[in-house]
Fold each of these.
Amino acid sequence: MDILEESGKKVVLLGNEAIVRGALEAGVGFVAAYPGTPSSEIPITFSRIAKKVGLYFEYSSNEKVAFEAAVGAAWSGVRALVSQKQFGLNVAADSIMPVAYAGVRAGLVIMVADDPQGWSSAQSEQDTRFYAKMFRMPMVEPSNPQECLEYTKIAFEISEKYQIPIFLRTTTKVSHSIGTVKLGELKKPNTKGKFVKDPDRFYNIQPHLQFLHDRLDKKIEEIEKEYGYKLNKIFLGEGKIGIIASGVSFEYVKEALQELGLNPPIAKIGLVHPISKEFISDFIKDKDIVLVLEELEPFIEEFVKQIAKDVNPKIIIHGKDMLPRSGEYNLEIIIPALEKIFNKKFIIDFKNHKEIVNSILKNIPPRKPVLCPGCPHRSTFYAVKKVYGKDTIYAGDIGCYVLGIYEPFNMQDYVISMGASVGIAHGINIVSDQETVAFVGDSTFFHASIPAIINCKFNNSKAPLVVILDNTVTAMTGHQPHPGSGFTGMGDKVEPIKIEEIIKAIGAEMRIANSFNQKQLIQALQELRKIDGLRVLISRGECRLLTTRKFREKGIEIPKFQIDKEKCTKCDICIRDFACPAIMKTIKNEETIYYIDLDMCTGCSVCMQICPEGAIHSIKKR
Ligand code: SF4
Ligand code: SF4
């Protein structure tokens, strides 16, 4: 396993894997996470190696409790890491700020991955650097896999030395970039600690607050002084035009300057909070023009402008006036900005490049993202639409089922954040007479939906129909376990927490149906539609990818289905309304033929149930 290779070796790692290696070299003993792309490979890797290296790892039920568990470990003297995607940080934020005040004993690293461009089906392009500023916490930002390893180690060092939790921020391109990484020494993890009582430190209430706040500010000042030149670097060059860059933008600008044969001075920012005033002053004091390159918000640019007023008021500072505030950067975006500040026309013909790309794209059939063949959610969407029709308000949430937004279902009228489907539907129900159906995934149920469902019951609302899509795992991010799965992140068996027991305790009307059984689903939905108040349907069916993987491992043949040409009336329901990607139609000898691609079919049997002509059969049973 590359990640556990010995010191001195050079191995190829993903940025996220390099973070894991850096944490291992720092002797991390406790890791907690809620999975979320683009950070998912961090917990996946820890889950694989935790027992082997002797550290504790858990998938927590949400990011807030993951953070709190890591705090418990760090307060007891065990180095801890917690990882999440950008929105996960919003969930954890409530606890992070008080812990910044209280501080830590052992190192505590909060890894957060931002997602400019929203590749991970993100709901917004959040820039988490502002959390560091608001919480008065340090934040380091690597640019490549080697730095992912090194910065993780440095983050533990800073955190422990200054007794302060620290952010390690990446963006998608850094987390998912692949590069050669030189490994350092692995450290035996310490997993045992002791919580020593210290009321002056851990009570974040008056009369301590001002003292804790002042102490936090002092720590930040000291970190700025000590690491301002260690984590930020100046690359000397020629001329009075300088570049300031951080994160992946630094890698892009290096490449662009090489392409263009330019060698201006560059300041690379690795410590994005606190940014060193001294470092920035040193860099800008003799420059005429500076271009600040950073994805998303003008976080560094605004700081540089502030410093420039005193240090070099005549300097011209460019940034978001030339570069977009949204989306990811690339050479095509950066080079025109460089052309402007260097007042040169470069011979790179992006127009031609674009035309070539477009001509290739023209020959690729456009494909929207779709639910997998045999996905239990497709079957549930189909049944819900049959019973509730197209005019019902369908409340969406975060998970694979977000794909229900597309044709033919169009059953996510809004998607906001985890748990928001029920919360918003409740508000709609209070002020309107419209019918609402709120979809909730099983992992989302444990993560953030329980309070929203309780709120419906508590406030005696007409309530939406809540459909819990229970496919037994956190499927979207790679089949990680949740409290209902029956196993932990370290692979140990545990008693699964039953969703139905929680719903029963809340006191909702409930039905449980097999997601792959249309008759059961439709009967349950029809019954629930007639009832007033809070109603819940648990549609339970294992993610088909998991089922087929288990079949393969056990040597069980995956059932396959086929369409009987004689019986098929070409009504198109199986394609137009159900849309399993394994069902195809083609024209042969001027005749339209419907058939099932046997390589894609996962044998869920639902197409057989929805075909009005009984034209679809299991191949084995015929
Ligand atoms: S639903 Fe049945 S009858 Fe209609 S096109 Fe598909 S296979 Fe043929
Ligand atoms: S059985 Fe039918 S619905 Fe299920 S995967 Fe195969 S073709 Fe698709």
Amino acid sequence: MTVDFDADRISADSLTSRRDYLRIAVTVSGGLAVGSVAIAGGLFHRHGDGTAPAKLVAERLAPGESVTFTYPGDADRATAIRLRDGTLVAYSSVCTHLACAVLWRADRGTEGELLCPCHEGVFDARTGAVTAGPPPRPLPKVLLEERADGIYAIGTQRSGQA
Ligand code: FES
């Protein structure tokens, strides 16, 4: 009798374990599905597309200098840099990997680099292309225009757009 009782208990425990396993599998699968839909739907922040009025970002930038600003929206962080040869560039400061803040490091590389400290992502200062680390795409560009009274942000380009 005692042996039958133990066998029934073991059998009931196995059923519970199977149910728990299925519940975990369904929960994890559902979470992955919801996460995939959120990413595909663009729910996570990325640099803003679209248009905004031209915005003054600096009166001037000398070679080697940079300035941070937001454009086109208040959450769209960006960095403008005057490279040592005088070329003016600007990129989103939102990393294309997991949206950490990208920092300008004038002391790295031959003409400086844009570094994401979260996972050591590195972007080329002249093109915004990924040169190291996990970011999957180049940094989106912010288009600049030099006018008599300063440097203006006038538009954005999506990652990889020429
Ligand atoms: S968030 Fe920038 S490298 Fe991961």
Amino acid sequence: MVPFKFEEIIVEQGSETSPIFYNLRRSLPEVPVRLVAPDDLAAGREPVRGFAAAKKKLVLARHKGEFLKKCPGSGGQVCCNYFVINFASNCPMDCSYCYLQDYLSENPALKVFSNTDDLLAEAGALLARHRKLLFRIGTGEITDSLALDPYIGFSRQAVPFFAAQPNVLLELKTKSDCVDDLLKLDPKGRVVVSWSMSPQRVIEADEPGTASLEERLRAARRCQDAGYRLGFHFDPMIEYPGWEQDYRDLVERIFATVDWRRVSWLSMGVLRATPALKRAMRERGASARLLAGEQVLCRDGKLRYFQPLRVQMYRRMLGWIRSAAPATKVYLCMESREVWQDVFGYAPGCEKELGDLLLPGM
Ligand code: SF4
């Protein structure tokens, strides 16, 4: 995977004493640093010239709101009772279907939060308040969980913290192969490292800056060998001539590389986009493969393939997964109860039921 090239690090005054700043200086000594006043950052006086340009400047600032929230899911779709914790906003990679192009269109700065201690304290307080509940918490909602890790060292603080908690599974979701620091840590069974997986031809066309399929597989194997639980997300699944052979090969390659008994969960979700995201994808040069397929507007305001096609795609994938990994837990991301019913023959009664189904025996 090619290292990211940052043009500048913009540091909010007060954040220059944080461990993240120290890690940035050590890992990127050649990148110029500029200190700015908090008011200038808050007032947006740091100009950001568009989504792609924003990814070239790394902003380090305190996060002033809450770090932890319930995953918003998508209106009316089956939800898997997941919590998200945001240590950063935006992502140095640039997938052409990325929903952040729409979600962060007003505020695209690539920002890392310097007050990791507050983040961990907030998570620790929630876990301590509900010791009888087992939580699934992920860091990959509005950034990639690991792509920035070689520069900021977040995992060196987060993994030992969550590994010491009795009632959590932390999921680090990535399209990178940045796992070197993870391998030096003991996850104590509390950390799932998961990869979003696509056929290599999709990676080459629509996931610029990410690790190749081979690199992701090698990283997954290294994490498995170091004691991490694994996860894989086939999301977004894309329909194009030849998709079946590509996705079948993908499933077979994964399970020829890792032991399915170490895989905590797999998810499937087809390509989806709000109309605004579809416009951004068109403007930013997404491949014809993404733009061409016919899609319908669903209840949650997102465009998806027709329901019969989605069901057919999920059933085919599920068949290939079941041949290679007979007992691995599989769920659908942001899909309706009807689709669940047609694919699995059942739909979870509530989000807690699905969340509990995904928890491994601890
Ligand atoms: S890796 Fe994820 S967060 Fe980053 S650009 Fe791709 S889809 Fe977006």
